[in-house]
């Protein structure tokens, strides 16, 4: 199992955090998501190989946010 950390700099509240978390959990291959509102970090645990960043970013964008590596 692998995990990577990304950032969603436009998360501003608990509702934002929940939206980002739920949007990522809906992706096949994502096992768990831990988001930190203070650091804007989102750690994603994958079932096997990491999901492509473009897929993750697109899903988060559909929820109204931007996901980046830094």
TrEMBL record:
Gene3D superfamilies: 3.30.70.100
Superkingdom assignment: Bacteria
Ranges of residues in domain HMA: 2-68
CDD domains according to UniProt: HMA
Sample GO molecular function, one term: metal ion binding
UniProt keyword annotations, A-Z: Metal-binding
InterPro entries linked to this entry: Heavy-metal-associated_CS (IPR017969), HMA_dom (IPR006121), HMA_dom_sf (IPR036163)
PROSITE patterns xrefs: HMA_1, HMA_2
A Pfam family the protein falls into: HMA
UniProt protein name: Cation-transporting ATPase
